[in-house]
Model the fold of this input.
Amino acid sequence: MNINTYKAVIEGVLFLTGDEGCGVKEMAAILELPVKETEALMQEMMEQFDQDEQKGLMIVYLGGKYKLATKTQFKPYFEKMVSQAEASLSNAALETLAIIAYNQPVTRTKIEEIRGVSSDAMVRKLQAKALIKEVGREDTPGKPILYGVSEEFMDAFNLASLDELPDLQNIAQTSMEEDLFDAKYREEEDKPNESQG
Done:
């Protein structure tokens, strides 16, 4: 492979690994190159992405992993996605978001245990919309990433604090088929009107 092909493969690998990222030894094995040569190639790509004004992405090196991230100078544009978060999120994404909000900090494995299905795509989608963020690493083998909701989540759902989330016990008492927000609306309607005597 020529150098441009190597770079194209690296870009694709970083996209596919998402928030997990890819270590230099893993990348070297994929490219079938020595580690030092891979490191030099990664450094060159980091500089190229950073200097290329036509790219909205950059390559970062965090926690021993290379990852794709959005450039901070374009943050105001990316934040515009968040303003329509409630309307654009699928039920699966909303379910994943709710699990993170109520259980944070939480690992992807725990999210999948609760949902009963793979949640990698949902976690990536929520990260891309800046509704969740990495908040640390769990002190267990492999040190999995811990997720929590972001400030953008709080803004998008008009929450001053997580204490304003609906009480889980109240939700459990409603039918499983009811929409959470519809249930809350009906609860407000059912309250006695103090002005009536």
